[in-house]
Amino acid sequence: MEPVVAVVVAAGSGVRLGGRTPKALRFVGGRPLVSASVAALAAGGADAAVVVLAEGLQDDFQQVLADATVPVRFVVGGATRQESVANGLAAIAADPELAGCRLVLVHDAARALVPPEVTARVIAAVRAGARGCVPVTAVVDTIREVDEGGSHVVDRSRLRAVQTPQGFDREVLVEAHARLRVTGEHVTDDAAAVEALGWPIVLVEGSREAFKITEPFDLAVAEALAGGR
Ligand code: C5P
After folding, report:
1. Which of 84, 89, 164, 219 has most ligand 1 atoms within 8 Å of CB, for mutation?
2. Angle (nearest 5°) at CA 6 between 5 and 12
3. What pLDDT is stored for residue 173 in this prediction?
4. Distances from the Cα of 220 to the Cαs of 27, 163, 224, in angstroms?
5. Is pTM, for the whole model, over 0.85?
6. What residue numbers bound the domain in which 40 lies?
7. Residues with Cβ within 6 A of ligand 1?
8. Which residue's CA is the closest to the ligand 1 atom numbered 4?
9. pLDDT over 90 for what percent of the chain?
């Protein structure tokens, strides 16, 4: 079986969550968010992880991931999520033990409670030939699009919220990021970059539990969920 390497981006400042501790090191269910994320991905089929962290935090991250069940490498992130992912991909290419991998996942450390079956579905879709795959959920709220003239309701039955881990053929994702560097474009997720190369994106079922822990409310929900598992 092809090995799977997960790029876990955790270099964000986490200002919306507040507090002094960097978000990825905040505890949920008795362990730091980044440890929970790596464990969740490993449980879903990732064989190794490259954790992308903020400058100066390498010692802390190394410590909290010392007991990870898969090999973990560390690399410093960039000013944007996109740059952080690119740094993670470069770290894979530079590592003799990871450079042979053809299937990569890109995951927000902030989605620490992603159930293993979501990761497994993404991996299976890429193994089945998808160049890019994203887990999605239905949109439960009624959505209004606003513009200068006012606002109007959008047909939510046609909308999906996109989560991570997203799965890719590594060569295609590397090419997609190389293209972004040339064009200077910014994307909010990696699937958009791959799609811009002309590859269709396969959708698989995500989970409400894979929500992004962003604000204090989310951390409280995550804590309650983790306690119930
Ligand atoms: O800011 P946002 O919620 O979109 O961040 C999503 C993920 O990307 C988080 O896990 C965050 O740590 C990561 N990120 C990063 N490098 C940045 C900005 C965000 O690794 N420069």
Report:
1. 84
2. 150
3. 98
4. 11, 20, 6
5. yes
6. 4-228
7. 9-12, 52, 77-81, 84, 108-110, 212, 214
8. 81
9. 95
